[in-house]
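Before the break, one more example. Copy the sequence into your notebook; we will annotate it together after we see the structure.
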Amino acid sequence: MTYAIIGSGNVGSALARRFARSGIAVGIANTRGPHTMEALERELEGYVTPLTLEDALDSDVIILAIPFRAHLDVARALEQRHGKVIVDAMNTYGVPIEELGGRPSTVVVASAFSGASVVKAFNQLPAKLLASEPVEHGGRRVMFVAGDEASATAAVSKLISDLGFAPIELGSLNNAGTLIDRGGALVLQNLVKLG
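Here is what the structure looks like once it is written out:
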């Protein structure tokens, strides 16, 4: 399976560091082009490859670590959606709740990526914790996962486990999405699963 992160800001860079520390290769793209991520490539040599957006969209699993409204641009650029897993690692800070139409943000994202499998994950930890070692106090830091398709949710849960976190599946995007959406994500930060 191939992985790409869209977004090289705090969250995207933190995820890239977690991939590298876990020995998992990942591509990373932003709107400014691969040359803007040369320092990150040097730092994480051998594991992180800067890509164009077009090349990143060829990956099997695409992690959105961008401002919420930018997901629409990525959706327009992704022509072949069948078989793709889109991971919504975004939060909706500054987005009026009316803009979501009373729906969890990931349901809104899923409607933009029709034909792909959309999973919510990686959004409840601040970048500093996301990049840090997930093993803590004899356990692993918890990462919540929500999705409507079992195979996509399982694939993202496996990735989360491979990155060192303890995945906890919460259910569908519509039901569980509300729990890890917006303010709910802040309440669920830095939980550790023992054992």
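The chain has one domain: 3-194. The radius of gyration is 15 Å. Try to locate both features in your own notes.
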